[in-house]
Amino acid sequence: MRRLVLQKNATNHINFHSLLGIAKGCDSIAEKLRSIDWDFPVAKPSTLSNIHPYPAKFISEIPKNLIECLWDSQGDYILDPFCGSGTTLEVAQRMGIPSVGVDLNPIACLISRVRTGVCNDGFLTACSKIVKSCKLSLSKSDIPPLPNIDHWFMPQIQQALNQLKNEIDKYDGSNYYDQFRFCLSSIIVKVSNQDSDTRYAFRNKNRTADDVYAFFLQSAKKLADAKKDIPHTEVHVINKNTLKLNADDFHGSIGMVITSPPYPNAYEYWLYHKYRMYWLGFDPIEVKNEEIGARAKYFKKSGYEGYDFAVQMSSLLENLYPLCADGAFLCFVIGRSKVHGTIYNNDEIIAEAATNLGYHHVTTLERNMNNKRKSFNLAHARINKEYIVVLRK
Fold first, then answer.
1. CA nearest to 264, candidates 145, 178, 347, 192
2. How many CB atoms within 10 Å of residue 13?
3. What string of DSSP letters covers 99-121?
4. pLDDT averaged per 10 residues, the chain (length 393)
5. Which of 58, 69, 113, 381 is the most exposed place for a label (fewest CB within 10 A)?
């Protein structure tokens, strides 16, 4: 693959004496990292990660092992700039390390906040009260004008979801509000005519309004049970385009970055959360337009040279440089892309962009993905392996 050299005047970041010292210490670190079997063939997702569906989830063993090998408390917190469903944040929380997560997708931010937040006393009682109010309600409120709503949701499902949302909105500003919305969001695809969370096709599941309420209460019970042993380590979640981050978004210095950025022609997170966003009052089209790697952008006839992803990652790395503590490690878990028959090595793109900006490329680790646990079966994307690019400031 042609190397993508980015012409940036970023070398003013580089302190060559400190960089030489870092390089000397990185060989042993790289050797230690390479001694780990990053495939984790028997890895199990956390209980919390299974309550709300989310495509292409991280496995917790990756951030856990990276933190155990690399965290040295030089900075104030761990950052995941593409936090998704919050795996890195939950792992850091359980290890007693403050963390910050950022994501463009409001559903991802909702999941991450609830996954790392406290489940308050009285939550299940409040959920039962909401369902009871829905069932006793005689009024039929107006259904929001969502696109193709009659295709994807049966009339009684529309009414039940709308009643749930209206009752939940009465708690706006309360400690329960995110948790209620999380439970509602978790069941929307389940009660719809969408085949599954990973297959955007029509299938009549013959759901009823009673199913909507029953599934909502089931989700609430699972959430309450899973949250019994959550520690109180600080976690902060920012709903923002990561490429537009600035120093005002952070307090203190970043001690480590662990993330899995979306990459070209792989997954379309906005699409599989499209109706969740509509029902909860967000704009999925706005998310689509800013989402990195959305496949529709690469179906066009115009050739793709991989340059836009390189520019995006370079911009992110340049923005993070002054925010990271000296010696901070940055770890990117990334796959390779197939676009118009050409394979693009996204791991190499990130490593090259980073070295151009003054980071040290410690190593790139390779891991085989477990086919049985794939969230998607994208034959065109050839997502069989992942690469962990380890950098150091």
1. 347
2. 17
3. EEEEES-HHHHHHHHHHHS---T
4. 40 48 75 96 81 89 97 93 96 97 97 94 96 88 93 97 97 96 98 91 95 98 90 94 93 96 82 94 94 68 69 96 96 89 91 97 92 45 82 97
5. 69
